[in-house]
Amino acid sequence: MTAKRLLVVDDDATFRRSTAALLRDEGYVVDEAPDGHLAAQQLKDQRYDLLLLDLKMPGIDGLQLVEALRVRGMHLPILMISGVGTVDLAVRALHRGADDFLTKPVEPAMLIARTAELLDRRPTESGTLTGSSSGGRSEAIRAVLADIARVAPTETTVLVGGETGVGKELVARALHDGSPRRAGTFQAVNCGALSETLLESELFGHARGAFTGAIRDRIGIIEAAHGGTIFLDEIGEMSMAVQQRLLRVLQEREVTPVGSVRTKPVNVRVVSASNRDLRILMLRGQFREDLYYRLSVFRIDVPPLRDRRDDIPMLVEHALRRLRMRVPQWAELTCSPYAMRALRAFEWPGNVRHLMGAVESAAVTSGGQRIEVQHLPAEVRESLEGFAHPRYRAEDTGDAERARIEWAIATAEGSFSRAADLLGMGRTTLWRKFKQYGLTAREPA
C-alpha cells in the first residue's frame, strides 16, 4: 500500500524537523512548511493524508488555515499542536475544524499514536452515522446501511439526499471504503462554499496564466482522485456552466483544466449530495436533466435525526468519547440520564451536526464534568415539557410543582441536597413537599 503523506507546519524549525524525522521513521512520507502561507500553497499542489499544524505562527496562523481549508471543503484530518495548552484554545481549534489537539512538548509516543489513530479512523468508527452498536441503531439507519452495502462494491454513481447535518459525507466515505477503490484517494468538495470560478479551478484544475494569480499549472480535485472517489456536496448550488463541464467528465471520462485545451483521462467514481430536491431545480431550469440522471443512478436518502431517536444515546457517547480524548482535563466527562432524556426529546432541526454542537457546548458549560440538564442549551432544556426553567418558581403549584420535584430528584440521582440546590429551596422544604405529594424515597441521613 502507498505510504501515507503528511504535512508538518510549524515556524519552529527544530520542532518541525524533529517531528518530521520521527514520523519518517514510522514509514510516512513527510513534507514540511514553515508557515501557513506556504502550507496553503503545498495543500493546493499536493494531496495529503494528514496535516500536523502549529497554532501560533506569523502571518496565517493555525486557526485561520483550518477554517479556510474547511470552507474550501477539504476534509483531511488535522492534528493541531500548540505551545499554549488551555481548554479554551483546544475548544476553539475543534470548533474551527481541527480533529485533535496536542500541547507542546509532545511525547513522541503520544504523537505517533494520535497520528496513527487519525489516519486509521474509518467512517464506521466515527459514530456519526454508524458507530458502535451500544445504544442501538434505529431501523431507519439500518436501511441506509443496507443500501450502502449493496451499492458500495459497484461502480454506480450515487446521489445522497437528506437535510443539512444528517451525515451525507459519511455515507460517501462509507461507499468509498466499501468499494474496490478503497486504496485510492477520497476527495470531497462543498460546491456551495465556492464561487463559480474557484469551483471550476478546484474541480478541473487550471493552466498557468488561465487567470490572474494562476502562476503555475495546478491539478484539480477530479484528477487528484484518479482511481478513487470524489464527493460533490451541495451539488444543487453548482452553476449551469460548471454542470456542463462535469457532465463531460462523466460522459467522456476526461478532464480539461481551466485555460487549457489539453484533455487528461480520469477514472473516478462520483458520489454527490444535496439537501435541495434536484428534481424541483430541474423543473425550474436550474439543474441539467441529463446530469441529474447521470448522478442519480442509485439514490440513498439519509433520514433526519428526529426520525431515528434511538441513535441519539450512541451519538452522544461518541461525542463525549472524542471530547475526553481531545481535552485531557475532561477525563471525567459524562452525561446524566435526565440530560440524555432531554437530548432525546429535542427535534434537532440541524440533525447530527446540531446534536454534536449541543453536547460540546454543554461539556464546556459543565466544566468538563457531568452534563446535567441545566448545562444544555436553552432550546434543548425547553423540549422537556414543564422544565423550561429548571429552578424552582414560587408560582408552580400542583402537578407542575410535583413534576419539577421529580425532575430535580432524578437529576440529582436521589441526593436531596443537590436537588434542593437545583430547585433553589431548603432541604427541609424539599423533603416536606416530597412527602406532601405522596412521593416515596428513603430520606438521606
Shape: globular
Trace the largest sheet across and list its strands: 2-1-3-4-5
Task: Give unreliable regions as ranges.
Answer: 122-128, 130-135, 386-397
Question: How large is the share of residues in beta strands?
Answer: 5-15%
Provide a descriptive summary of the structure in words:
The protein has 445 residues and is α/β, with parallel strands linked by helices. The protein folds into three domains: 5-121, 3-Layer(aba) Sandwich (Rossmann fold); 139-302, Rossmann fold (3-Layer(aba) Sandwich), CATH 3.40.50.300; 307-436, Helicase, Ruva Protein, domain 3. It is built from 20 helices and 14 strands. It has helices at 13-25, 36-45, 62-71, 87-96, 108-120, 123-126, 139-151, 168-177, 196-204, 221-224, 240-252, 278-283, 289-295, 312-326, 337-345, 351-365, 378-381, 398-411, 416-423, 427-436; strands at residues 5-9, 29-33, 50-54, 78-82, 100-103, 158-161, 186-190, 229-233, 254-255, 264-265, 269-274, 298-301, 334-335, 370-371. The strands form four sheets. A five-stranded parallel β-sheet has the order 2-1-3-4-5, with helices on both faces. It has a five-stranded parallel β-sheet with strand order 7-8-11-6-12. Helix 3 links the parallel strand 3 (50-54) and strand 4. The relative contact order is 0.09. Residues 122-128, 130-135 and 386-397 have low confidence and may be disordered.
Chain-wise SSE layout:
Layout: E1 5-9, H1 13-25, E2 29-33, H2 36-45, E3 50-54, H3 62-71, E4 78-82, H4 87-96, E5 100-103, H5 108-120, H6 123-126, H7 139-151, E6 158-161, H8 168-177, E7 186-190, H9 196-204, H10 221-224, E8 229-233, H11 240-252, E9 254-255, E10 264-265, E11 269-274, H12 278-283, H13 289-295, E12 298-301, H14 312-326, E13 334-335, H15 337-345, H16 351-365, E14 370-371, H17 378-381, H18 398-411, H19 416-423, H20 427-436
Parallel strand pairs: 1-2, 1-3, 3-4, 4-5, 6-11, 6-12, 7-8, 8-11, 13-14
Antiparallel strand pairs: 9-10
Helix pairs in contact: 14-16, 18-19, 19-20
